[in-house]
Amino acid sequence: MQVQQLAYFAAVARTRHFTHAASLVGVSQPTLSKQIRVLENSLGSPLFVRNRGQIELTSAGEALLPHAQRILRDLESAQRSVDEVTGLRRGRVRLGATPTLCDWLVPELLTRFHELHPDIELEVQEAGSRVLTGELGQGRLDLALLIVPLRSDGAVETGAIETTSLLRERLVLASPASADMPEVIDVAGLRDLPLVMFREGYDLREVTLGACRDAGFEPHLAVEGGEMSAALRFVEAGLGHAVVPEMVLGSRPGLRSTRLEKPSLRREIALAFRSDALQLAALAFRDELLASFKEGAFKELGRTSAGAPSRRGGRAGRARTR
User: Fold this and answer.
1) N or C: which end of the chain has fewer CB within 10 A?
2) Closest residue by Cα to residue 286 from 142, 103, 79, 114
3) Distance of alpha carbon 290 from its chain centroid, rounded?
């Protein structure tokens, strides 16, 4: 059993497609298929089965996968540790962030870090908080900027991954500028309003639907699907209203903001990581980010800062720059 074969196996298990897996690991599809067969022969059991065009893991494949992933993570960690000990200044930081944070926070953050550490490769993965949490837990990310919902008592909903609070932001109701809306509305008042709803897996979707259901009703969805920029354009076009972070409305004259009460809705922006897996490059990135927030570099992005970082257990497109 060779490490390269385990890498090929893990790529196929992840993509469920031999051609896509071959592209991912940088080899031809015949070469990858041949090495998978060699691995299967050495183990004495098939690892994949084709079922109506779909590739599924066999029982043997399911048993091997967590071991292969752990071996590959350990080898990558060992290589990075040796590189750092021997004075290699290059490194890599794998950062995950939600779509909204990728729009208004990540570009400036990457620019600031790149100016200080131009030889460190930066890799960004954009996804919802739940997906990013899974990637963090599997060791495919070093750090993640997450949106963490707050309970009505103001506490952060957390789990096993360590997080550091960065900002606490208020959610408001975005409406067309021409709409006759009060300055404040109860969540129950959303019952009679057509809403523009984000796509499945989008954090704001879960927050909005949860608040409406807690108030005892299912909201009327006028338009469903899309990211933040699309949702704001739909609202500007008069198709409905949307629950959004207050900070995204600052440069949108075609929209007006209504404060939500009973309950007020807020979210926590947090940096999540596994402290047992951070190498020097990721540690430097984390420390620079926390220092920037502590110094108020991103204060204009939210109404209030979360204050001094506090560590809690947390829950958790791709771009590169050098």
Assistant:
1) C
2) 142
3) 18
Smallest CA-to-CA distance from 45 within 60, 64, 67, 62 is with 60
3-class state of residue 112 by DSSP: helix
Nearest CA to 208 out of 167, 256, 263 is that of: 263
For the chain, list the strands marked E by DSSP: 48-51, 54-57, 91-97, 120-126, 143-149, 161-176, 184-186, 194-197, 220-224, 242-245, 255-261, 266-273, 304-305, 311-314, 318-321
Cβ-contact 227, 109 below 8 angstroms? no
Query: What would the CATH number be for the domain defined by 90-322?
Result: 3.40.190.290
Instruction: Write down the architecture of domain 3-85 according to CATH.
Output: Orthogonal Bundle (1.10)
Q: How many Å separate Cα 214 from the centre of its chain?
A: 26
pTM of the model: 0.58
Question: What confidence tens digit (pLDDT) does each residue in 278-319 have?
Answer: 778 888 889 888 888 877 656 545 433 333 333 333 333 445
Q: Is 166 helix (H, G, I), strand (E, B) or coil?
A: strand
State how far the alpha carbon of 318 is from the alpha carbons of 44, 110, 123, 199, 288, in Å: 37, 14, 7, 19, 22
What pLDDT digit, counting tens, does each position of 184-224 carry? Answer: 999 999 998 999 998 887 778 888 998 999 999 999 999 98
Question: In 3-state terms, what secondary structure has residue 296?
Answer: coil
- What three-state secondary structure class fits 234? helix
